[in-house]
Write a structure and sequence with these properties.
The N and C termini lie close together (6 Å). It is globular, with a radius of gyration of 22 Å. The strands form 4 sheets. Strands 1-18-17-13-12-9-8 form a 7-stranded antiparallel beta sheet. Strands 7-4-3-11-10-2-19 form a 7-stranded antiparallel beta sheet, covered by helices on one side. Helix content is 35%, strand content 15%. The chain has a single domain, classed as Gamma-glutamyltranspeptidase, small (S) subunit (Glutamine Phosphoribosylpyrophosphate, subunit 1, domain 1). The chain has 567 residues and is an alpha+beta fold. The chain contains 18 helices and 19 strands. A hairpin with a 5-residue loop joins β3 and β4. α13 crosses α18. Bound molecules: glycine. Glycine (GLY) binds next to loops. Glycine binds next to loops.
Length: 567
């Protein structure tokens, strides 16, 4: 069932947003997302959500649908959907058991701490962001295979075939998608060793069909051979040959040795809610649990001047917690991340002792980070199946279109995840976040992430599935979606639509969405000493809320083409 009326409403809201009148912090009419009885898929692309819904209607479970949606996004949403990148699954089965799967990329075996520095120790511009050296060893295909081996119920072929067909037969582009391919064509020409004509070969227009024949062939190898269809044989050869032509370092050994890993999910409580989220190598779960932990004992409100107090509190939490991120967070297989200490209630209250309700705390002890205008493309999808099993998946190439390297012959885009390492202590990555030695580059290590796929329980029952793209803004966007529902009483769609704000210690600013912050609230915050930075949309949250009567409400972010399908 497609909720056309709601879709129109959301698109109307998006137009309002683009028209700079998105000042609807509190809208008069509650906005409701698609509501279904049994199952829901919310993703960044309608075709991927449709694939997920069909898998569920054919009797597949939430993990089956997640695998099929992940693969479909690799075709229809190539700026972030991927087989050349990596991500995380957080899974909650209907018996309450929960799991997290880490299929984050890893540093190649030839990677080393100073690989992006020149002989004077200075960072070489763009080297960790574009081209072959920017790519970590992809984890997505191994992750899908691992998830399937544990939870899959339909045949593997059934899960991969929809993506094969979308790549082989093609799909029709919207004007926005056509513009995106035209905008990124020069990067593909510059950084791929063989011009990927399926992306760059024409000036794209609305209603053109994008066919990806090489990618279809790679997906067929994955469909027929599973893991070996990517990490061995023809695809591995294409990847290594691409590396050799482009002076990259991913080797046959890297591909052979790559393994995704089941990890204990990070869990915590907030009032009557249990939060199930992603631990290291993501910082995201720690960040939202720290924020919720500090906020738990405080009254917050989104009404009138109190909204300014809430934003002040939120910003001051973010300032301190992102400083923790820079120092303590990394791949826990390589660095002893003090997770329990960071989440300890005493630590958090001590950390917040310097909070002044009337003044912003300056955070200029460390050189300011700088947010670059690189797009923060990652993608998130949320799924609940008719049995009540749930998957939150966030997956990424890092920047939009990753490294801009398309593997010739295999037709997929390689990530630029190496930039999520701290390439030099104190040097900001493309999201402006700083890192230290904990997150320095090491062979086989996973670069620190902010991705925060999260599932909430209320009184022991499934309550919400949530996540978003957005680089360093991911944890704070997930935090706001949760708080909008559990503290401010919004439904899922309204919680997703609300304007977002973000800050992260350095640079010392509150970023807000264009048209998304009332001038009076801004003045109140300026009086407390806060600085501001206006920017386009922050995050694209795709989430599902279980309503009190057991039905499901989707929140599909109107900032993108995101769409919910269910039944
Ligand atoms: N590449 C974005 C993240 O993992 O946080």
């Amino acid at each position: 069932m497609k909720h056309t009326k709601n879709r129109l409403l959301r698109h109307f809201l998006l137009i309002l947003c683009l028209g700079c009148v998105f000042s609807c912090k509190t809208t008069d009419e509650p906005i409701t997302g698609l509501i279904t009885e049994h199952a829901m898929v919310v993703s960044a692309h309608p075709l991927a959500s449709e694939v997920g819904k069909q898998i569920l209607q054919n009797g597949g479970n939430a993990v089956d649908a997640a695998i099929a949606v992940h693969m479909a996004l690799a075709v229809v949403y190539p700026e972030a959907g991927n087989i050349g990148g990596g991500g995380f699954f957080v899974i909650r089965q209907n018996d309450g058991s929960n799991y997290s799967l880490d299929f984050r990329e890893r540093g190649p075996l030839l990677a080393h701490r100073d690989m992006y520095l020149d002989e004077d120790g200075e960072v070489i511009d763009r080297k960790s962001i574009k081209g072959h050296l920017a790519a970590g060893v992809p984890g997505a295909v191994d992750g899908m295979v691992k998830a399937y081996e544990r939870f899959g119920s339909l045949s593997w072929e059934m899960l991969i075939q929809p993506a094969v067909e979308l790549a082989e037969k093609g799909f029709v582009l919207t004007q926005g998608e056509a513009d995106k391919f035209n905008r990124t064509a020069d990067n593909f020409r510059e950084y791929s060793t063989v011009n990927p004509l399926h992306f760059t070969g024409k000036d794209w227009k609305e209603n053109d069909t994008l066919v990806q024949t090489q990618l279809a062939n790679t997906l067929k190898l994955i469909r027929d051979q599973g893991r070996d269809g990517f990490y061995k044989g023809q695809t591995a050869t294409y990847i290594v040959e691409e590396m050799q032509r482009g002076e990259g370092i991913i080797s046959y050994e890297d591909l052979e040795k790559y393994e995704s890993t089941w990890r204990e999910p990070l869990t915590g409580t907030y009032k009557e809610y249990k939060v199930i989220t992603m631990g290291p190598p993501s910082s995201g779960g720690i960040i939202i649990l720290q924020m919720l932990g500090i906020m738990e004992d405080r009254e917050v409100s989104n009404v009138g001047d109190s909204y300014a107090d809430y934003i002040h509190l939120k910003t001051e939490m973010e300032r301190r917690i992102y400083a923790d991120r820079a120092t303590y967070m990394a791949d826990a297989d390589f660095y002893p991340v003090p997770v329990n200490e960071l989440l300890d209630k005493n630590y958090l209250s001590q950390r917040f002792q310097t909070f002044n309700p009337n003044r912003a705390t300056p955070s200029d002890e460390v050189g300011a980070g700088k947010i670059l205008s690189m797009s923060e493309e990652t993608t998130h999808f949320s799924i609940i199946d008719p049995e009540g099993n749930a998957v939150a998946c966030t997956t990424t190439l890092n920047g939009g279109m990753g490294s801009s390297v398309v593997v010739d012959g295999a037709g997929f885009i390689l990530n630029n995840e190496m930039d999520d390492f701290s390439i030099k202590p104190g040097h900001p990555n493309m999201f402006g976040v700083l890192g230290g030695e904990a997150n320095q580059i090491e062979p086989g290590k996973r670069m620190l992430s902010s991705m925060t796929p999260t599932i909430l329980e209320k009184d022991g029952q499934l309550f919400m599935v949530v996540g978003t793209p957005g680089g360093s803004t991911i944890p704070t966007s997930v935090f706001q979606a949760i708080v909008n529902v559990v503290e401010f009483g919004m439904g899922m769609q309204q919680a997703v639509n609300e304007p977002r704000l973000h800050s992260q210690w350095q640079p010392e600013v509150i970023s807000y969405e264009k048209g998304g912050l009332d001038e009076q609230i801004k003045s109140l915050l300026e009086e407390k000493g806060h600085h501001f930075n206006e920017r386009s949309g922050i995050g694209r949250v795709d989430a599902i809320l279980v309503l009190p009567d057991g039905r499901l409400e989707a929140g599909a972010d109107p900032r993108g083409m995101d769409e919910a399908f269910g039944f």
